Amino acid sequence: MKFTAAQIAGILEGVVDGNEEVEVSKLAKIEEGSEGSLTFLANPKYTPYIYTTKASITIVDKDFVLEHPITTTLIRVENAYKSFSKLLEYYNQVKMNKTGIEKPVFVSESATYGENIYLGAFAYVGDNVTIGDNVKVYPNAYIGDNVKIGNNVTVFAGAKIYSETVIGDNSVIHSGVVVGADGFGFSPNEKGEYIKVPQTGNVIIEANVDIGAGTTIDRATLGSTVIKKGVKLDNQIQIAHNVEIGENTVIAAQTGIAGSTKIGKNCMIGGQVGIVGHITIGDNVKIQAQSGIGRNVKDNETLQGSPALSYGDFNKSYVHFKNLPKIMDRFNTFEKKLNNE
């Protein structure tokens, strides 16, 4: 798919400085630009590359001043970085604008779906499923019985949505995600054998949620595991049964959250964080990567370490910890002097 400089300028409300008819069909970094590619300049340290880039079109701030001749056509905009991001979003929309039902697929006779949907080959849609408008379900995805999917939802290839799950508008489920698998519920009997506790609840994902590849969200034992609106989950996160994650919280990769824990809104949780079950984490909490959370956390706390301390206490303690060998040498020297007196 090709776009001219004039077309791109129209999308970005920019002004062309150069050849309006030059065409591009790919994106590139400014230092790696080649003929037929589009790039941008936002960071001043990359300015020298604009005089050597072979990209056909470069997006720049409207007040950018050239000091040497260039071969690339410029599109001048209010903010080059924001404009390029907007263009990436537009490019993705065009690239992913698939519609229709490929063959083979299985769609239950009791399932219903809205307008302008896409079902990729080998997708499975179970009994009593409800799918809204503008939904895209990519190949090899599984949609279990009684699932409800809102409008403008994307379910990428290979995702598995178990029965009874609810997915809100504008959410994105990436490849390999499993939503609604059984929670880790077992109870020992008198022989010491572990007997499975039936997991009869579901998962509710509200609007505008992004779930990264390979993430798993378990169904509740009773009631619902709830991911509230605006939550962004990275790849390979484990969320256990009956967890609740508040609005606009973001969680980085490889974090694990044990059962029945409640996390507030607007939290930021780093990668490889471990959170025990049955605790409450307040709003606006920040947890540094690789921390272990084993207690309730109040609003606005910032934590680090395992077990986690307040961020300030952790940094003070770490200064002493990294100097521990020197401190012990001084202590041993002092002890020897005392013993010799």
Task: Report on this structure.
- It catalyses: a UDP-3-O-[(3R)-3-hydroxyacyl]-alpha-D-glucosamine + a (3R)-hydroxyacyl-[ACP] = a UDP-2-N,3-O-bis[(3R)-3-hydroxyacyl]-alpha-D-glucosamine + holo-[ACP] + H(+).
- Keywords: Acyltransferase, Lipid A biosynthesis, Lipid biosynthesis, Lipid metabolism, Repeat, Transferase.
- Catalyzes the N-acylation of UDP-3-O-acylglucosamine using 3-hydroxyacyl-ACP as the acyl donor. Is involved in the biosynthesis of lipid A, a phosphorylated glycolipid that anchors the lipopolysaccharide to the outer membrane of the cell.
- With 341 residues, this protein is α/β, with parallel strands linked by helices.
- The protein has 2 domains: 93 residues, Udp-n-acetylmuramoylalanyl-d-glutamate--2,6- Diaminopimelate Ligase, Chain: A, domain 1; 215 residues, Hexapeptide repeat proteins (UDP N-Acetylglucosamine Acyltransferase, domain 1, 3 Solenoid).
- 16% of the residues lie in helices and 30% in strands.
- It contains 4 helices and 40 strands.
- The strands form 6 sheets. Strands 8-11-14-17-20-25-28-31-34-37-39-40 form a 12-stranded mixed sheet. A 10-stranded parallel sheet has the order 9-12-15-18-21-26-29-32-35-38, with no helix packed on it.
- Strand 22 and strand 23 form a beta hairpin.
- The radius of gyration is 27 Å and the shape is flat.
- It starts with a strand and ends with a helix.
- 34% of the residues are buried.
